[in-house]
Recover the amino acids of this structure.
């Protein structure tokens, strides 16, 4: 009847220390990859048209990384600067626009800026 005690608490502590990736980060990463691929394949500028396929792949990869970094930086800025309340004279549509902007606006601005900067740095 004597069984050795098994410490389940150590497994719980180890499991709680493992880093988890938030679904928001995964979503912004997917958006960065999609926008980077779209921006490299649909751009008709001489800079992109004259680049090799390998350079375009590297540009898309750099754009994805910098786009994700820009989105995460935008999210940090949003968390810091988002107001607790707003006053408007524009009515309900103005309130909806403000709410949508503070939900995704800074992240989208950082995402677009990062993707274009990353692609431009590689293809210059």
């Amino acid at each position: 009847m004597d069984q050795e005690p098994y410490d389940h608490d150590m497994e719980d502590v180890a499991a709680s220390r493992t880093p988890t990736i938030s679904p928001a980060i995964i979503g912004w990463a997917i958006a960065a990859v999609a926008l980077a691929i779209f921006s490299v394949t649909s751009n008709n500028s001489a800079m992109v048209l004259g680049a090799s396929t390998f350079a375009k792949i590297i540009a898309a990869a750099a754009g994805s990384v910098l786009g994700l970094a820009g989105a995460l930086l935008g999210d940090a800025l949003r968390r810091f600067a988002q107001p607790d309340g707003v006053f408007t004279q524009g009515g309900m549509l103005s309130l909806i626009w403000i709410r949508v902007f503070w939900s995704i606006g800074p992240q989208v601005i950082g995402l677009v800026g990062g993707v274009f900067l990353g692609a431009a740095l590689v293809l210059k």
In short: Residues 24-123 form one domain. Helices lie at 8-17, 23-42, 46-49, 53-81, 92-123. The radius of gyration is 22 Å.
